[in-house]
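Minutes, project check-in
Item: structure for the 219-residue chain
Input as provided by the requester:
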Amino acid sequence: MCPAPLARRPAVWPTLAACVVLVSGRVIAAPVLTNADAAVRFTSPLACEVALTLTVTGATDVEHRLELLEGASVRLVALERAVEARPAQDIGRTRTLVVAPAAGAPQYVLRYRIQQARSRPGRCPIWLPTVPTDGRSRSVRVTIDLPDGQTASGTMPTFAWQGTRGTAVLAHLPAFVIVPFADAGAPRPWDIARVMDAVALASLAVASAVWLRRRKGAH
């Protein structure tokens, strides 16, 4: 219950302020991304199509940010159950888009296509909402679909694969996915995992050689 009027209780400023904060807290809650499903379909190593389904509670407008590296381009194909609140604009390497979900429908869908530069095969950025998840519930699902006959390796994040479809369940929506892929049976495309493996093996070989040399010198 809120305190009596100020005229009768002149020393209740702290209590009154706390009451206002509590009432405001009940009315205005911070926006939260409660669910996200990013379906990414690669049509080639340099092109991907994304259907991003989001459920955001407590927001009337949601800003999205997409990282566009040099040579990349994006085309917004469709907005479902939402409209553009402001036209998209570029800020440095970031394409921003503000959308307004339909009243009473916190779930909406962005569909867009990415054409990547030749130096960035297998990379597909996600048009991230600037609304955080709670960080605890693993409410983010990312699925990857590759062209027929292709296999992936050294992906980021890690996916569980069934044929040409990979699935990952995460706590946060990633800014991009990296999925190097090639024909089944072909040599693996370059990826960071192979570089790390090579560096680890080289480091082990060097350390072993140094240890043997020191051991021989001690005798």
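Outcome recorded: Confidence is low (pLDDT under 50) at residues 4-27.
No further action items on this chain.
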